[in-house]
Amino acid sequence: MRILMTMFGWADSGGGTILPRQIAHELAARGHDVFVLHAATEPLPGEPAYATRTHRDGAITCLGIHNRPTPFLDDKAPARELHDPAVVRIVREAIATFGPEVVHYHNFLGLSAGITEVAAAARVPSLYTPYNFWALCPTLYLTLPDLTVCGGVAPDGHTCVTCTKSAEGGASYVARRDRIRETLVRDVGLCLPTSTSVRDVFVQNGYPAEWLPVLRLGNGRAERIWNAVGRARAPRVSGPLRIGFVGSVIPIKGVHVLVEAARLLRGSFEVHVHGSGPPAYAEAMRRMDPRGVVQWHGAFADDDHARILAGLDVGVVPSICLDHSPLVVDEMQAARLPVLGARIGGIPDYVQPGCGELFPAGDPRALAASLQRWIDAPADVAERARRIQAPPSFGAYVNDLVAHYERATGRSTSAPRPRERIRLNLGCGKDHLAGWVNVDTFAAAKPDRVVDLESLPWPFPDDCADEVLLKHVLEHLGRDTPTFLGIWKELYRVCAPGASVRVVVPHPRHRDFLQDPTHVRAVVPEMFLHFSLDANRDWAARGLPGTPLAEYLGVDFAIASVSMRLDPHWQQWLQADPARQNELDRVMRTHNDVVQEVDVVLRVQKPFGGARRPIAP
User: Fold this and answer.
1) Strand runs (DSSP E) across 477-573, as ranges?
2) Residue 98: C-alpha distances to residues 21, 63, 263, 405, 433 (Å)
3) How far apart are alpha carbons 437 and 256 in whole angstroms?
4) Which of 6-15, 412-421, 463-472 has the lowest mean pLDDT?
5) What is the model's pLDDT at position 421?
6) Co-location of 187 and 333 in the same domain
């Protein structure tokens, strides 16, 4: 497939540049033809405005646009952010020369929204992944000068004038917001927000919800850290609790919140800050720490990232802005660091349930209280570290992107990836099925594969299973919630799109469940709704309670069928008078031992947040 990507910078720092670069290299490694058009960060002395340079990075062709009037934010020129004629001309020539089959906008920063009109006029389908709030906020982060979160452009635009210190009137920023929204929704096929928070903010600012399927990021660097550090790391705390911040030392990342919290801590601990930022801010932070509790390590090379995380016990992500997709959370957890994250933006989507903790953003006392509990209970920190699972697969994330590309073009243009079509009989015991891969934790059962289903990740490739059977297995798994949720993430990962998952369990109000001491998890049909994205969204729309685990975990299972086998006594009772069917619901609610067994069939909806496969009746 011929893919054109737009972004800001190429070999530069920052998650909004690093991740698209990783995606480009992964796509090229899979045999796709990738062309990257980017707003270049470095000036070309002596060259005119909008000078272009073409270069190669491996198999990728890059075209950089240099010497724009403003190299980064164009916050004082809202009209140019809507339509920059010079950039539009360059993009038109690039599309005519390269002939892309799909365009993936990773950034409009330094390029303008008008470039989408070029692809749309050429009838090239497109998608957009936002890494900041450029479409909603001329200063990117929806944060006011006093560091409070802004809900968006004020009705008269005065907040934008205050932030940008521009001579433009507020009406210009209202027009900027509205025209960008009109342009993107009209010309771009889908926007792929990287967290539920981002999607919600876009919806609150007038974007259609159906245009915004969430696609949680994978992180190749986190996978490398897991393999280098986390996979084999023993979860224990020996000596002072080593608390760490890793990232840009800038106000919106809330480093001052951590420094203020550190002043309140007592006991055996250390606080380490790795990263650089404006000298004035760093100096102010040092003045806030008269005890010298915080150790400042400055900038670090990417090659040192895993080593730095290996030297910490706990990670802190104290952002006070609406972080889109905090990749640092995945990277810390990949080193088996329990994370204390601010309850803001995408951070709650990325902290693994039961492995970390959230605190109110901007509240140093709440952060200090959580840290103090961990200082006083290092065994709790070690237990949280033990529960941490491997980070989401970057390869699976790119699979989902390619699936979006293929749906956008209306045909599969990439060569089909060969995969073994298997059926998994998980927890088979001695009930081996012909034509299935029979899996059990006990070698004495003589399965095809000996696998402990509570040891994650499972040794099966992504999208490999067309059918999965868990017959009298699920009730034995996941005594602790993080393990149980990790099993659902693994189940989703190994299932192919449209795969069938059949779960058979004893009803938790039947003696068959209650009498077995190895049964640790009660399962009822309603539980599966928590893993259905449609059900989660319906609850939210109707204001109903319910933990949206599908949203949190990035999984989506639709309930295809539910059946229940009655206890023999009640089966005979019903057969004696079929009219009693009308009383069955009341009997089930008022008596134990009515339903003996529950049989549920689920259908796997992939890619996550994408088009739904209809379920046959």
Assistant:
1) 495-506, 557-566
2) 19, 11, 57, 17, 52
3) 54
4) 412-421
5) 64
6) no
Angle 255-263/279-287 helices, nearest 10 degrees?
10
Task: Please check whether residues 185 and 239 belong to one and the same domain.
Answer: no
- Domain membership flag for residue 547: yes
The answer to whether residue 617 scores a pLDDT higher than 50 is no
Report the candidate in 129, 150, 128 with the shortest Cα–Cα distance to residue 140.
Answer: 150
Yes or no: say if 27 and 21 are a contact pair by the CB < 8 Å rule.
no
CB count within 10 Å of CB 578 equals: 8
**How does the average pLDDT of the chain come out, rounded?**
89
**Residues contacting 381, CB < 8 A, separation 6+:** 237, 241, 313, 314, 338, 374
Domain contains 313: yes
* Maximum Cα interatomic distance, the chain, rounded to a whole number of Å: 95
* One domain, residues 55 and 198: yes
At which of 211, 246, 281 does a domain end? 211
Kindly report, residue by residue over 555-607, the tens digit of the pLDDT: 999 998 888 888 888 888 888 887 887 787 788 888 888 888 989 999 999 88
Q: Are residues 205 and 228 in the same domain?
A: no
> Given 188, 211, 234, which residue is the final one in a domain?
211
pLDDT tens-digit readout, 47-100: 999 999 999 998 999 999 999 888 788 888 888 999 999 999 999 999 999 999
The HSE-up count of residue 140 (CA atoms within 13 Å, CB side) is 14
Q: Which two tokens stand for residue 559?
A: 């309930």
| Across 21-25, average pLDDT | 92
Distance CA 213, CA 203 (A): 11
Residues 424, 347 share a domain: no
Please give the average per-residue pLDDT across 184-194, as a whole number: 95
Domain membership of residue 37 as a residue range: 2-211
In this structure, the answer to whether residues 133 and 277 fall within a common structural domain is no
Tokens describing residue 67? 């010497």
Candidates 264, 140, 118, 282; CA nearest to 198 is 140
Is residue 400 in a domain?
Answer: no
Distance of CA 70 to the CA centre of its chain: 32
Both 137 and 30 in one domain: the answer is yes
Number of folded domains that form the chain: 3
* pLDDT bucket at 288, cuts 50 / 70 / 90: very high
Neighbours of 312 (CB within 10 A): 21
Q: Identify whether 609 is part of a domain.
A: no
Domain with residue 280: its CATH number is 3.40.50.2000
Q: Are strands 51-57 and 60-66 parallel, antiparallel or unpaired?
A: antiparallel
For residue 612, what are its two tokens? 């739904």
Distance CA 553, CA 550 (A): 5
Confidence band (pLDDT; 50, 70, 90) for 256?
very high
Identity (one letter) of the amino acid at 301? Answer: A
Q: Where residue 486 sits, what CATH number does that domain have?
A: 3.40.50.150
Cβ-based neighbour number of residue 141 at 10 Å: 21
Same domain for 197 and 224, yes or no, is: no
